[in-house]
Amino acid sequence: MVSETDREQLALFGKHLKSLRLSKKLSFRKMALLCNVDYADIQRYESGMVNITLLTVLQLAKALEVEPDELLRFKKN
């Protein structure tokens, strides 16, 4: 079960992911092609609905041309 604090952290991660994607001017579909992840999954990550896996973080980082730890550098509450 996901706690309220966990949900908040997932939402913050998703907001950061979206910010990075938009800064690279990538649509959901383009990013999905670059990282071999379904575009609907990217939407779910950005909305904080899914607890993302390490392998997916690595794929997203590669598509965004950032180091994986950059994806985890979001402001916490």
Automatic annotation (TrEMBL):
CDD domains registered for this protein in UniProt = HTH_XRE (cd00093)
Question: What sequence ranges are listed for the domain HTH cro/C1-type?
Answer: 17-71
Name the Gene Ontology molecular function terms of this record. DNA binding
Domain of life from the UniProt record = Bacteria
Q: Which InterPro entries match?
A: Cro/C1-type_HTH, Lambda_DNA-bd_dom_sf
Would you tell me the protein name for this molecule? Helix-turn-helix transcriptional regulator
